[in-house]
Amino acid sequence: MAVLASNCGPTAAPGCNPRPAFAGLSCRIGFISAVRRSQVMDFEYDVLVIGAGSAGLSAALTLGRCCRRVLLADGGAPRNAPSPAVHSFFTRDGIRPAQLLHLGHEQLAPYPSVEARELKIKQLTKLAHGFRASGETGQGHAFDTTARRVLLATGVHDVLPALPGFRELWGSGVLHCPYCHGYEVRDQPLAVYGRGKAVVGLALLISRWSQDVTVVTNGPGHLTDYARQRLRRQGIGLRQEPVARLVGTPKTGLRCVEFEDGSFLECKALFLHPPQEQRSPLAAQLGARITGKGAVWVDKNAQTTIPGLYAAGDMVPGQQQALLAAASGSKAAICLNEALTREEVA
Ligand SMILES: Cc1cc2nc3c(=O)[nH]c(=O)nc-3n(C[C@H](O)[C@H](O)[C@H](O)COP(=O)(O)OP(=O)(O)OC[C@H]3O[C@@H](n4cnc5c(N)ncnc54)[C@H](O)[C@@H]3O)c2cc1C
Question: What's the half-sphere exposure (Cβ side, CA atoms, 13 Å) at 171?
Answer without folding.
Answer: 16
